[in-house]
């Protein structure tokens, strides 16, 4: 059925190692995100799964079937691209009906009819059989495009075009839906509403979906699980919560949400806690360091900030506010502590004053929220 397994996938273009040794096991019905910076190999992975690219090495399974030698159009994958890749001279209905009609003609007989269909559709004469007409209209209703059925796709907004692309992919009832940065060309507001639309449709249909994005917020808010890629490798795989609360490297900590990352040296123990020396001060952490030289990772929201005398207790760092920025419901402070600039996020409470630049502040961090990587 619709699970996808990728084993030891290697893809080399002349001289470029695009995929190093990628392994993925994607469950049937799962919404799975491939996340990573530009050039890390997301599209290549996707194209190998879809059959547009031949792996240099490794195996790909869709369900139990090994698909390495199966052509793209027989793999039962639906694709949605960043660029939509719609037929600009065809209307919405014909775009969605196109592949269904081709499939129907293939079923009925020799390929000459396909050429006739292509010719007719170019002259806008082609008519779909009633069952295809019905199916396409159902899908268009579903993605709220039925009123636009006769519009050329070139006359639609970006969001509408992307919904046509989605409808066209879903029309074939694929076992797997592959989406490569489908929302990147949309503005922020539309992107947010399309995220919700795509997720709802995916849950409704229970279709296995692989979603490629470089946008961590997108991956984290939509996916059941996320594989973070870097330089052709999957460097961490897990649920959004796992990645956020237990990053295995400073790269992940920084890429998935924002983090303060400082180099330090472990200089001793205080009970369960490691004492880490930074430039000018020490910090304690309950995480177990692998080496003496560590990267100290602290999420901005895990630091408390207070003025002057407010803070009793241990683990206090003194600093000065450089900048305070409203980010909607939170306020971010950039606080100078010696040679460092520390990001601190606090929930904005109306009525409570925001510390201005220049204010002397004290920061506290719970040692349980200091990661040593
Ligand atoms: N057709 C190609 N020929 C040569 N190099 C390629 C080709 N396609 C991709 N690459 C290289 O492979 C690497 C991964 O690319 P890609 O999978 O497109 O990354 P992403 O989608 O994560 O941005 C990059 O270094 C890219 O330049
Ligand atoms: Mg890409």
Fold and architecture overview:
The protein is of the alpha+beta class. It folds into two domains: 4-245, Rossmann fold, CATH 3.40.50; 259-372, Nucleic acid-binding proteins (OB fold (Dihydrolipoamide Acetyltransferase, E2P), Beta Barrel). 27% of the residues lie in helices and 35% in strands. The chain is built from nine helices and 20 strands. The strands form four sheets. A six-stranded mixed sheet has the order 6-7-8-3-9-10, sandwiched between helices. A five-stranded antiparallel sheet has the order 13-12-11-14-20. A five-stranded antiparallel sheet has the order 15-19-16-17-18, with no helix packed on it. Strand 4 (57-62) and strand 5 (65-66) form a beta hairpin. Helix 2 packs antiparallel against helix 3 (112-122). The longest helix has 18 residues, at 188-205. The protein is elongated and about 80 Å long. The two termini are 39 Å apart. The structure holds adenosine-5'-diphosphate and magnesium ion (MG). The site of adenosine-5'-diphosphate has 11 residues, from strand 2 and helix 1.
What's the short story on this structure?
The protein has about 375 residues and is an alpha+beta fold. About 25% of the residues lie in helices and about 35% in strands. The protein has a six-stranded mixed sheet with strand order 6-7-8-3-9-10, sandwiched between helices.
